Amino acid sequence: MNKCGSLVSPPLSTKQYDTKADLLAYWYNDFGLESIRESKTGWIGWYYWTWNHHDCATNPFFKAVLPADKTPDPYDPSRHPLLGFYYGDDPVVLDWQSYWLFEHGVNAVCLLGSSEDWESPENGNHWMYQLFHNAPNFRKLQYVIAGPVPWADPAKPSIAAKVRSQYFQIIDELYAHYDNCYCVTENGKRYPALSFLGENALLSVFDQSKGIDKTAAFYVELADKFRSIGYDGVSLLSVFPDSRFDEPAMRKFLEEHGVRRFLSSYVPYHVDTQQFTGGTYEGLVDSYTPPDDPHTVLAVGNAVHTHTPHESGWVCPGNTPALFERFLRKAVEHLDRHPDMKRIITCYNISEWAEGGPGLQPNVQDGFGYLEAIRRTLVK
C-alpha cells in the first residue's frame, strides 16, 4: 500500500472529570482496513462510503449493485474527516480517536468485533488489536464487546457450541486480560457488560426460537465464566429483546445467578418509528419519549441518515450538533427524573458514516461539534 502524509501521535490524556451519565458509544470500523482491501471486492470495497470514495456517483460497480431507480450519493467534501483520508487500522489514527473521545467526556465504547485472529493485518479484527495494543489513550476508555449474534438455520446443525465458544474466547482473551472493561456496579459488586445486537438471534441459536430456557442457561454460563475471572457476574445489553426474559420469575432466576439484563439499542429508539423512514432528525429528537423502566438503558444517536448504497435506507436528514445536544439533554433530564434507572446512555455512533451519517469524530462541516455537545451536556 502507498501512503502519503503522516500523523504525529497525540499526547496521553491526563483529563480528570465526573460525568452526569456514562456515555457508551458504539464503534464499528470498516474504513481503510487491510482486510477489506484484500477481500474479493478489492479496492472498491475498501473505498466505499461517500467521504472516502470520490467517484461513487459514476463508478460502474455501484451502478451494478443498486436498483435502476437509485444512484449512489456523491462524494461530499463537507463530511470529510479532519484526519483526512485515514487507515482504519492505523494505531496513530485510533489513538487520536480515543484521545478525542475521552477528552470530550465519552466514558466507554462498545466495540463490534472480537480477538479472533486479530494479530493478522488481513483479519477484520486487526483494528481492535491495534486499539488494545498500540493506542495508549484507549486505556483511558472503558470497553464493552458486542458479541456475535448469528441467526441459526433450522435446516442446518446447531451452531450453539460454536457461539458459546466464541463468547468464552472473548471473555478469556479480552475481559480477563484488559481490565478497563465497563462494569455495571450494584452494592459494590461489578458486572462486566456485554452487548447483544440481537437477542432474538441468540434465541434462534440456543432455543431454535421455540422457547427461552436454553438461552437463559447460556446467560448463566456467561455469568459463571466472568465469576471465574474475579467478577460478580455479567450485565447484558440486549438489543431486539424478548419480553419473556422480563417476566418476574425469569428475571429473579437470572439475577440470583449473577445476570443483570437491560433492554438496550444500537440506534435511537422510543421515538416515532416514521422518523427513520421519512421524518427529520429534529422530529426524531422531539418525539423521544423513553420509559422509566429501571431495566432499560437509554439510547441516542448523533445521526441516522443513510448514504446510498448502504442497505439500511434510513431517511432522517437534518442532524446537527445543536440538535444532538438537545437529544442528550433530554436523556439526562429523563434520568434525573427517574433515579432508579442506570445512568447509562448508549450513543450511535463513532464512525459508521455510511449507515447513519457523520459519526462523533470531527469532520470538515461540523468540526468538533458533536464531541463538544457531549462535553457541554455530560461533563460536570
What keyword list fits this structure?
380 residues; alpha/beta; nine-stranded mixed β-sheet; 13 helices; 9 strands; globular
Could you explain how this protein is built, in words?
The chain has 380 residues and is α/β, with parallel strands linked by helices. 32% of the residues lie in helices and 13% in strands. Helix 4 crosses helix 5, helix 6 runs parallel beside helix 8 (213-227) and helix 11 packs parallel to helix 13. Residues 40-47 have low confidence and may be disordered.
The number of strands is 9
What is the helix tally? 13
Indicate the mean pLDDT.
89
- The run of helices and strands is EHHHHEHEHEEHHEHEHEHEHH
- In angstroms, what is the radius of gyration? 20 Å
Give the terminus-to-terminus CA distance. 44 Å
- Low-pLDDT sequence parts: 40-47
| Structural class determined from secondary elements | alpha/beta
Query: What percentage of amino acids are in beta strands?
Result: 5-15%
Note the overall shape. globular
Helix content: 25-40%
Task: Summarize the main sheet.
Answer: 9 strands, mixed
What's the gist of this structure?
The chain is an alpha/beta fold. The protein has helices spanning 34-37, 42-46, 60-65, 91-103, 126-134, 160-175, 199-206, 213-227, 248-256, 281-286, 321-337, 353-356, 369-378; strands at residues 22-27, 108-112, 142-147, 183-186, 189-196, 234-238, 259-263, 298-301, 344-348.
